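Hello, quick one for you while I still have it in my head. My current little project is about how a certain protein chain folds up. You're getting the sequence in one-letter code plus the fold written as tokens. Would you mind checking whether the tokens look sensible for this chain? Here's the protein in full, and shout if anything looks odd to you:
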Amino acid sequence: LTETTRRPLLAWVLLSTLALVWGSSFILIKRSLDVFSTQQVAAGRILLAWLFFVPVILHQRRQPVVRASVRQ
């Protein structure tokens, strides 16, 4: 048996959590458009994505395996 067939409740909880997080971003975007312009919302989303990914990129740059695979 696979892991998800042994624990279907966990799979449903994880799926529901993913759906909640995914859907809430669209609701927040819609609500923010009441206050901010479309350019400000787009810039904010880009800024937040940049703030999230910069530490990830900096961490991966220190890994020699990643550097070698990127150069090839």
Summary: The chain has a mean pLDDT of 86.
